[in-house]
Amino acid sequence: MSTFDDPFDADHSLQATGCGCGLHRTRAEHDREAQLALQCAPVESSEQQYEGVVASAVMRAMFPKDVARRAFLKSVGASTALAAISQFFPLKTATEVFAQGAALEKKDIKVGFIPITCATPIIMAAPMGFYAKQGLNVEVIKTAGWAVIRDKTMNKEYDAAHMLSPMPLAITMGVGSNPQPYTMPAVENINGQAITLAIKHKDKRDPKDWKGFKFAVPFDYSMHNYLLRYYLAEHGIDPDTDVQIRAVPPPEMVANLRADNIDGFLGPDPMNQRAVYDGVGFIHILTKDIWEGHPCCAFAASKEFVTTMPNTYAALLKSIIDATAFAHKAENRKQIAEAIAPANYLNQPPIVLEQILTGTFADGLGNIVTQPNRVDFDPFPWQSFAVWIMTQMKRWGQIKGDVDYAAVASQVYLATDTAKLMKEVGLTPPANTTKSFSVMGKPFDPAKPEDYLASFKIRKAS
Amino acid sequence: MGSSLTLRAAILSVAIFAAFLGVWHLATRGTGTTAAMSPEYARLMGATATQGKSAMPGPLDVGAKLWEHIRRPFYDNGPNDKGLGIQLGYSIARVLLGYGLAVIVAIPFGFLIGMSPLLSRALDPFIQVMKPISPLAWMPLALYTIKDSGISAIFVIFICAIWPMLINTAFGVASVRKEWINVARTLEVGTLRRAFTVILPAAAPTILTGMRISIGIAWLVIVAAEMLVGGTGIGYFVWNEWNNLSITNVIIAILVIGIVGMLFDQILARVTRLVTFPE
Hints:
heterodimer, A: 462 residues, alpha/beta, 5-stranded mixed beta sheet, 20 helices, globular, B: 279 residues, 78% helix, 0% strand, elongated
């Protein structure tokens, strides 16, 4: 489900059941809807936008079981429900509190990003004025790599940053760095990655033939790494012994593919499309076909920033939610591609970005493919995402011993600032911040991570 | 005779350069064959895929791009897109700062070590261990402890520029002719005065040679350091253009880095000649 969906629409699920994206009861329904691209009601003003976000949270709090919410809406109708809830829940007030915020502690903010399309909302918020609208003067700074992003945010050179969604978890748990409490209030993008193979492998479409391949992923603690390993393991390839997986910065992926140093990569865009554009690779599978609606990159800030500058943080988060909502809409994507193409941001040919963002793209094999949600933008940081990521960290030996999945997830993946703002107006924040989903057809129950982990045949012995 | 040799060498240089450009041009011409694909598909593909254009830019591409950079060296389109002149300015400033700090530390210390055989022996093991450490190996440690990427880059320049100067200064000071020092001693010249009027002029050429080696190393390191920390500078420019897979700009950056490095070297070579005296 999308945070921007109307919580008073009985036909939409707020929690996932049927299809991967969680919007539909069946896969077929999902595909039909996908043709219509986006079903999110047009939002005229930011006021309504926030109201939707707040109302979503309220409805989720009131009806932890989605069936109950649907039954309730079906029986009384959306307008009655809205009126009824408004009586004892000051939706308008809550929205205003959320929308206005208080005086900013700091206006000049530095946000680091890596030049990939996953960072789209963070980047476009600068040229398109989403930060300025909240009274912030944000400088978005291109950064050389994930480790540098990590160090610069930990050093407080950046106030907040674009990160891979597993990174705040890893930083908080002290995996690959000193432990420092981190928060991830918003997911940047869902979907939006792909497995790209060298053009010479165009006849080897079955992963079973990939023994001995060399693959690249951008970072050890990345969705890319976990998704590639998952995909290979599901096809009976042990990612630790049958193939080689290296951490390689995204631009080097294309160059290495050209130089024949690697056979393929699971990387962020624009590199997948760039490999196609340059004629050196083809898109084997989009990650949305591995896990529809998987999170990828994220917007992260240190716990310290959140607690010492709550208003600035709220304003920043609001800009990001605004920008993400704008990027969510298909009709804006061409405009966004143009806004983020210049050298100051992604520094790529606009046609490459346009193909990624609109989802009509050349696959490198001579076909033009249309996948409108090749990349999508939805900020809600489902805590079950965090739990899944931790199961994979444990599966591949990055973390060992007992993990308090739920505790780390709720500490790091803040289910938006809405929860805090709701408390301020005397309400209980949403109880439900998890949803179940399936990865390659295998359902994941966030309540039973250890059982899920035990069900995999291929895993690193620990 | 001399002038004719210079002339002939110049002609040969130009010829070698022309031959190099010619080979480069021929090697990167590409196949020129257009792959068979529908126009709609071709619209989504780059020139390498559609026209068989070589992935490596030819000398003409590089020349055109270079002209663009030279025409607008100081444009500023926000924090991540600045002109080549501005980027170079940042790099040069960082190098001079780190190098300056190294000079301030290395030369007095080198003097001390050179004048005292005891200190020289005692510090030798440390210098021997520190000297061969690759400058970039310091980077993570610097980032972690200094917690500021700009200062870290300067620190890395400092730490790598210091050793050749220290060693050369110590060597220069230690190998000043004994007779000169003895003469100074006979004339009852004070220690400080002896250092400035006898030892310093005698050791100056060696010290400057050390400085010349150091500036070369500092300039080598800045590019790598800026690639790592990003933000500004010529190293960042290379990294940024690499992200964009623009090999043309990477080649231009290499050319510029070479020229600036040569200028630094030439300046110090000239200064060395000024302080060298014939015996």
